[in-house]
Amino acid sequence: MKATRRKFLGTTAALAGMAVAPGLLLFEPARAKGVSSKIRWGMLVDATRCVEGCTACVAACNKENGLSGQTGPDDSQWIRKVELTEQSTGRALSLPVMCQHCAEPPCVDVCPTGASFKRADGIVLVDRHICIGCRYCMMACPYKARSFVHQPLTGQKPDVPRGQGCVEACTLCVQRVDRGGEPACVEACRAEGRNALTFGDLNDPGSAISRRMREAGAKQIRADLRLDTGVRYQGI
Amino acid sequence: MRLFAALAFIAALAVPAGVIAGVDKPVIVKAQSGPCIAPPEVMRREHPDLLKHQRTITVHEGVRNAEVDLEKCVTCHASKATGSVAASPQDFCESCHVYAGVKLDCFECHASRPSQ
């Protein structure tokens, strides 16, 4: 029989499959389904409902993710309240700024190890197992959204592992989203009676976030960079 | 009498085996509930690979509450004394890792105590 290249490759693949299969079969019964690219998670910030001095979203984020809440140069801040005043009119704005979960994230572009990545559902994350703490992503981010953990940490939340030497940022509370929940900041804003934050699927035209964006319009911060952010702002 | 001497000799050989080796065996604290996901001999050898395989699936694909789950390991194996798997050299993870001389860095980031 003439051994063709195709046959040889086929046999090799079959043998490799047999060799690997026993170990994998033991521990991979009915693998759970992961995130889908049919969804794109996003958040709409209604700046007209956000009020100066309210930091409920920031406090909720710190509590949910086990952040210290300090704002020194060495402290992690995943969400910040920003107060703006338009100079010509004196119009004041207050809004939260966090990782914008770009569709074309610069942090992912520059990451040398692949630790910065975008999930199929649009959430931009840092895989701390791979992060080497080079901080290129912090330089690349136009929103100053990322923080570096300078000191050893203790008492982390079981759902939110964090540690020294890694870069981190808003995860849209991925630990909640994966279980069908919504980010802690959104919940806190609603509990405060403001309802300035809406979380949902940007790909679903029937979702609350899509409806609000369609009716009231929404802008991206630094839209000129064409990063197609997942966090959008209304009334800015 | 000879039987007794023989038994005593065997006992003398058997009992101080750990002492002769010069290194204390790791303390294996019994887990708090139910059977593990695999037999002990499999877990002893395979747990790093299982966890490493799962971490990618969880972080990148968002699969939570999988069968292999570090949080579940911690929940069952946290010691009664410290409430942790790695707070003292007698705790479950720490005792074996010290014995084997393998650095344990999971808990620099992950919680070594179960959620309350």
Strands of chain B, total number = 0
Q: Report on the biggest sheet of chain B.
A: none
Strand content of chain B: under 5%
Per DSSP E runs of 2 or more residues, the count of β-strands of chain A stands at: 9
Task: Figure out the total of helices of chain A.
Answer: 7
* Helix/strand structural class of chain A: alpha+beta
Strands of the widest sheet of chain A, in order across it, are: 8-1-9
Order of helices and strands of chain B: HHHHH
By CATH reckoning, the class of chain A would read Alpha Beta
Mean pLDDT of chain B: 84
Oligomer: heterodimer
Shape of chain B: globular
State the end-to-end distance of chain B: 59 Å
- Our Rg estimate of chain B from Cα atoms comes to 19 Å
Of all protein chain pairs, which has the greatest interface, and how many residues does each chain bring to it? Answer: A-B, 33 and 27 residues
Chain-averaged pLDDT of chain A = 90
Q: What's the helical proportion of residues of chain A? A: 25-40%
Low-confidence stretches of chain B: 15-20
Strand portion of chain A: 15-25%
Task: Describe the structure concisely for a colleague.
Chain A has seven helices and nine strands, in the order H-E-H-E-E-H-E-E-H-E-E-H-H-E-H-E.
Please describe what this structure looks like.
- In chain A, the strands form four sheets. Chain A has a three-stranded mixed β-sheet.
- The longest helix of chain A is centred in the first third of the chain and has 23 residues, at 5-27.
- Chain A is built from seven helices and nine strands; from the N terminus they run αβαββαββαββααβαβ.
- In chain A, α2 crosses α6.
- In chain A, a hairpin with a 5-residue loop joins β4 (116-118) and β5.
- Chain A is an alpha+beta fold.
- Chain B has 116 residues and is mainly α.
- Chain B has helices spanning 2-14, 17-21, 40-61, 70-77, 92-100.
- Residues 15-20 of chain B have low confidence and may be disordered.
- The A-B interface holds A 26-27, 29, 31-35, 117, 119-121, 125, 127-129, 152-153, 155-159, 161-164, 166, 174-175, 177-179 and B 37-38, 42, 46, 50, 55-57, 59-68, 71, 74, 108-111, 113-115.
